[in-house]
Amino acid sequence: MAEWSNVTVVTKANLYFDGKVTSRTVVFADGTKKTLGIMLPGEYEFGTAAKEIMEIQAGELKVLLPGQSEWQQISGTGEFTVPANSKFKLEVQSVTDYICSYIEE
Amino acid sequence: MAEWSNVTVVTKANLYFDGKVTSRTVVFADGTKKTLGIMLPGEYEFGTAAKEIMEIQAGELKVLLPGQSEWQQISGTGEFTVPANSKFKLEVQSVTDYICSYIEE
Q1: Domains of chain B from N-terminus onward
Q2: Which Enzyme Commission number(s) are on file for it (chains A, B) (predicted)?
């Protein structure tokens, strides 16, 4: 069972889209930050500040990355990277459990 | 901003009721366990193994505790305790952010 040790967790959730997307913020000893999130089925657009690496732990969804015209399908597990200061779209088909890593450059 | 330091977080979510109730498991240095969870609107029945203290950080819901005939309304923040090996019912009216503490006796 994968777990992160010696981390700090913010107790209050981050809520988006009426709670259909929620996450918890985790800060590591080196100061880097990740969120652990859940997305319920729906269509969403997100904007990034920092670069983000999205790791899908379980779920089914389509992703449209900035500057691309083709949607990418993820079924089960997968990963994609979103540049800083950009927007991306998701079509979530089944409950999706993700890890988002924020990369300061 | 309330946070927990020096904890271990399980990366995979706990999913219930088609993802309408989800939580993340956090283990403290002394071995005690809490979950940080989100409940979307709906009606749910849960069973306990250990005694549970449910702290509502934000939300609106009604609770029917075991052995009681009157529902208890929580709006905003609140807390209730559920005995070990029992069942309780919830009517969640708006997105609810909770902390559940598991008390081994």
Answers
A1: 8-103 (2.60.120.10)
A2: 2.4.2.1, 2.4.2.2
Interface ipTM: 0.94
Chain A residues within 8 A of B12 when measuring between CB atoms: 1-2, 57-58, 97
Radius of gyration from C-alpha coordinates of chain A = 13
Size of the A and B interface in Cβ pairs below 8 Å: 89
Token look-up 């990366």 returns B11
Among all residues of chain A, which has the CA nearest to that of B17? Answer: A95
Q: What is the pLDDT of residues B9-63, one digit of tens each?
A: 999 999 999 999 999 999 999 999 999 999 999 999 999 999 999 999 999 999 9
B→A interface, C-beta within 8 Å: 1-13, 15, 18-20, 22, 24, 26-27, 36, 38, 40, 57-58, 95, 97, 99
Q: Tens digit of pLDDT for each residue in A76-97?
A: 999 999 999 999 999 999 999 9
Q: Is A51 left (phi over 0), alpha (psi -120 to 50) or beta?
A: beta
CA distance B66 to B85: 10
